[in-house]
Every structure is written in structure tokens, then in C-alpha cells.
Amino acid sequence: MTLKHQLYLLCLDYLQKKAKDIKVLIDEAIESANDETKSSAGDKYETGMEMMQQEIELNVSRLTEVTKQRELLDRINPDVAPQTVQQGALVKTNNGYYYIAIAAGQLKLDGKTYYAISHSSPAGEMLMGKKKGDSFNLNGKVFLIDDIF
What end-to-end distance do the CA atoms of the chain give, in Å? Predict the structure, then answer.
């Protein structure tokens, strides 16, 4: 299995865990809302139900975002070795390795650190379309692209 396949699978695992955690939060909020019983303090019940509904809506929104990230990841073919930086590229720079996929943060693999970033992140935007040998400045640092996989 190639390095890009391994990074792809780590990103997929990240999204699956995130979706699972969010679903648990939604289920817990629904269960709490269902357990609420109307007491003599009607306003307290209504406030509690509203808070549960807001929590459910927030987590449904978060789950929707995870689904969008999954769709982006699904479009990546780890077998492609692009000449320029694009979605799915693994970029070696003088300041580390960047996997242009989803915003999953640091990924550790075989003792090395890789940064899974979105193409719309500041670093991702600077990298997109660049080729081996190109450089750019980000936050006062000069990045030189050593290789693209």
C-alpha cells in the first residue's frame, strides 16, 4: 500500500470517527428531549426542549459538514501522481509534508508527521497549482516545493 493510500485511509478513518461521535451526540440529545416530561414549571420544560433542539440542529449541521468532507475525499484517487499541486496531492516542502485532502490536521505515519489540509486553507490555497521547484511565503516563512506525489 502506498503512502498516499495510507494517508487517504487515515483521513477516511478521521471522518468516520468524527461522524460516529456526532451521531452519538445527536442520539443523546434526542433521548434527553424524549425523557423530558412536562412539569408544573412549564417555562423550564420549554427552555430545556429548545436547548435540546438547538443542540440537535448544531450537530446535524456538523454532520452535514463531515458528509461534505467525505464527498471531497471520495473524489480523490490516491493512485494519481500529479505534476502540479491539486486535490489529493502529497507535497514535500522544506517545511514538512502536506496532503491536500481534508482538514484532518497532523497525521503520524511511520514516525513522520504529515499535515492533512483542505485546498481552501491558507496553506492549501498557496499550494494549489504550484509545481516542483516553486516557492511561496506564508506567515513569514518561505516554503519550497521539493516534490509532489
Answer: 14
Kindly report the pTM of this predicted structure: 0.88
Distance, in Å, from the CA atom of 108 to the CA atom of 10, rounded to the nearest integer, reads 9
Compute the average pLDDT of residues 76-94.
Answer: 96
Q: Where do the DSSP E strands lie in 1-149?
A: 90-93, 96-100, 105-109, 112-117, 135-138, 141-148
User: Can you tell me whether residue 131 is helix, strand or coil?
Assistant: strand
Q: How far apart are CA 137 and CA 130, in angstroms?
A: 13
Instruction: Report domain extents, the chain.
Output: 3-74, 90-148
Residue 37's pLDDT band (cuts 50, 70, 90)? low
**Helices 3-35 and 42-74: angle between axes, nearest 10 degrees:** 160
25 grid coordinates:
451526540
Q: What is the CA radius of gyration of the chain?
A: 21
SS3 label, residue 97: strand
